[in-house]
Amino acid sequence: MNADITPPRWDGTTGGVIVMAVTNNFIMNGYAINVAAAAYEPAIPVKNRP
C-alpha cells in the first residue's frame, strides 16, 4: 500500500463501502482503512420507506 484506503461517500444509492479479497497477507505499511467520513447508512426495509 502507498496511501490510505477510503471509499467514496454514500450518496443514498452507492458508496460508503470497502470490499476486499486478500490472499495470504495484506501489508498496510502504516496506512489506514478509513470509512468514518463515508456515512454509509444501512438499507431501510421497503415497508418503512417514506
What are its keywords?
single chain; 50 residues; little secondary structure; 0% helix
- The overall average pLDDT, rounded, is 79
Strand content: under 5%
Count of separate DSSP helical elements: 0
Structural class: little secondary structure
Uncertain runs:
none
Shape: elongated
Helix content: under 10%
**Rg of Cα set:** 15 Å
Largest sheet geometry: none
The total count of strands amounts to 0
Distance between the first and last residues' Cα: 42 Å
List the SSEs and their pairings:
Elements: no helix or strand
Summarize the structure.
The chain is low in regular secondary structure.
Overview of the molecule:
- This protein has 50 residues and is mostly loops.
- The chain contains no helices and no strands.
- 0% of the residues are buried.
- The mean pLDDT is 79.
